[in-house]
C-alpha cells in the first residue's frame, strides 16, 4: 500500500504540485492555489458549454436529452424558489440560484475524474461563495425592509444582540465548511482507495476498483449542491417575508 503523498504525485498529471510550494503560489494579494484557480475556470467553461449545448436548438415537441436534463433542473430550482419566496420577489433570483446549483454540482463531481480536483474541495472556494451569499442576503434584507431590517438583531430583547450577531455570522461559516468537508473527505478517501492498487500500468485500475465509493460520491455531490442552494433560498426567504 502506498502513502497519500505518493498517490497525489501519481495523480499530478498536470504538474500543479511543482508550481510554487505544493501548488501554492504567493502573490501580492495572498497565496493562490493554482490548481483550484484553473479547475474553477474549467468548471465555469464546462457549465457554460453544457447549458449552451442543451438550449441552442430547443424543441417543444421533441426535446433532446440534454434539453430535458437542463429543463428538469431549472424547473426543480424554480419550484423551490416559488415555494419559499413570493413570486414577484423570487422571479428575478431563479436564474442566479440555478447557476449557483449548476456550478456547485459540476464542481462537486469534477474531482471524481482522475487527475482532476473539485474546486469545492478547497475551503477558499466554499468560503468565498458562502460570503457572497451572506452579502447577498444582507443586501436583499435592506432592499425589502430598509433600516427596519436591523430590528431583528435586537429581538426579542437588545440583551441578545451579541448572540444574534454570532448566529448571523455562523451562517456563512456553516455553509462553507459543510460542503468543503464532505467533498474534501470524499477526495481523500478516493486517494486512500487508489493507494491500495497499483497505478503503474493505468490510472483506471484503481479508479474502477473504487466504483462503489465513486457512486456514493456522486450522490453526495448532488446532495451538497442541493443543500447549499436550499439554504441560500431559505436565507433569502427570511429576508423577503412580510411579517404582519
TrEMBL record:
Question: What is the first-listed, main subcellular location in coarse terms?
Answer: membrane
Q: Where in the cell is it found?
A: Cell membrane; Membrane
Enumerate the InterPro entries for this protein. Answer: ATP_syn_F0_a_bact/chloroplast, ATP_synth_F0_asu, F0_ATP_A_sf
Q: Which is a Gene Ontology cellular component entry for this protein? A: plasma membrane
**Regions crossing the membrane:** 38-58, 94-113, 125-144, 188-208, 214-236
Question: What is an annotated GO biological process for this record, any one?
Answer: proton motive force-driven plasma membrane ATP synthesis
This protein's record includes keyword Transmembrane helix: yes
HAMAP family on file: ATP_synth_a_bact
What role does it play? Key component of the proton channel; it plays a direct role in the translocation of protons across the membrane.
Q: What is this protein called?
A: ATP synthase subunit a
